[in-house]
Amino acid sequence: MQVKFVRLFFIYILLACTVVFSAAAQNIRTNHTKVIQDDTLKSRKLDSIRVRGTRQARSQSNYKFSVGTNLIRYNEESLSPMKMASLSDFIRQESAAYIKEFGKGMNAYISVRGSSSSHTTVAWNGMNLAVPTMGQTDFSHIPLYLFDGMEMHVGGNSALYGDGAIGGSVRLTTAPKWEKGVHGDVLLSAGSFASYFTGGTLRYSNGKLESRTSLLYSEAKNDYKFINNTIIGKPEERLNNAAGNNVGLLQELFRKLRDSSVISATILYMDFDKQIQPSVSLNDKPDSYRSIYDENLKVNLGYNSREGELSYGARISYAYDKQLYEDDIIAANRISLSADAERKFKNLTIKCGLFAERTIPQVDSYADSVRENRYNLFVLARYSLKNKLLISGGVRCAGATDISVPVMTSFEARYNFFNRNNNSLSVRGAFSGNSKIPSLNDRYWGGEYLYLKSESSKTFEGGLDYSWFSERYTVDFFGTLYKSRVNDWIRWLPAGTVWRPQNIPLVITQGAEAGVKLSGNFSKTKVSLNFSLAYTDIRMKEGLRAEDPAIGEQLAYQPKISWRSGLRMSRAGAAFYVNLSYTGERTTLDIYDILPSYLLTDIGASCDLKISGAHFTVNGVIKNITDEMYQNVKFYAMPGRNCQLSIQYKF
Asked: How much is the pTM?
């Protein structure tokens, strides 16, 4: 691993030098030409989060066509305090969505509104990050450092983002800044359990050409203490076989053409070399220790342009995902093509697009002939009536090898009762018809299970948003009620001596979400307090057997109640914050076995420093300060009190 890191480090230096010298040469060549002014930046307020972006068309995002559902957008400033962490760490702290973790730094999968991890799509600039063989994304394998922003769309939205978005969608973004000169940062972090993170980013732009190169390396021993509840007396032990390391590399090139269009080329490479954390009952049994290696490569070429009120783009992408477990290799090559166009009229916006993908797996448990083709065609529309009523809708048709896919639809509306003086109130509602194509593992692992149907759902939701502000204070509130019927939910069930996938006829989920944020300015001190709550009731209503005891019971590992809260105070570049996260009781695969709830408390502080013109940010945090001993998944220990210190240098 050290050899690989050294090799990647020299590649990073070579790329950085190449970019700087080539950009400098380009700057010299254009010295006597007219310099195109930087794109005007605009700032807008959305979902109580300040979002900063450029006017340059980036046609992959479809958030504007979702007027009746809850969308949370995080800009780079929001992500910055946790740049050394994974996406699972960030969502666990910032959202009431449930993250199912098998230990610190181990596999972590999201559940939005009680849905399966494969029911939430995850994409980077429109490129699917899910492993095609398993059809889901491990959130511990997404280092936050490499990304500039994130959109989290809660609720069904397959018409907007494609099949799989039954529970929600997470969209990660990177984009050019077009800030002339050389910019970047170096981030160093160290914490408990021998955890270390090093990251570096170098950007160069001359107004026409921009390059961004980022490299990261992280490692952790994860040898924390825990209570072994499988042994009489419940002794305290130190965790074994839970170490891991990660290397990541991101290279992006953007070039403005004379007609203001932009061509881009991006490469994302990540590898993860991990020991597999044992269950607490096997912690002292070296014969059971295992490790796993994952490698991911994403390459994308894109073109985006705008002519008046028309914006359009096209992309070609290649992905290679590989997992090595002992002598078993699970790998897949995937190539995709996509194109879309968006046209704005006076009160109407229409967007249409297409997508095609071919996947060639390399899995010993599949037949050699297995190949998969997928396609999507979609149309989206949004209409605004006198800034009072917003209506949006869409239709997406999809197909895949050896299976039919239901048509995906959406219809949403928002009505602004008032938006005057210092307060606003709006109500919203949405309907969506969603679907999920079975993964390659579902259909081909150990045989051909072509009897499987695509999962489908119908989701209804409604809610309201209220905002009030004065010179010193602001209040933002949202509330949502929802209900979803999922047909043909896929689960692997025992069939004699083997396990096979089956379609569960009907699962119903219903619940509520609410959140409030209070902000105030007291002299030179800014104070903010936020709270978000999720109530989830998800039950199997129709099973494969009428006598199944799980019918009518809450699904496994789905807490009914979860909430998050945070307090932050800042003054003159210094900040102090407290974050609390509560996860309620949940059952294991045995519906009568209930895991206890737990409350985690983190306390931290940060400070911005300028020394001899250099800009530094220092951040320290104590996590789980109450030293709560808990298990997110039964028999997999989680860490007690631990700390982390980071310093970032920006130039």
From this structure: 0.89
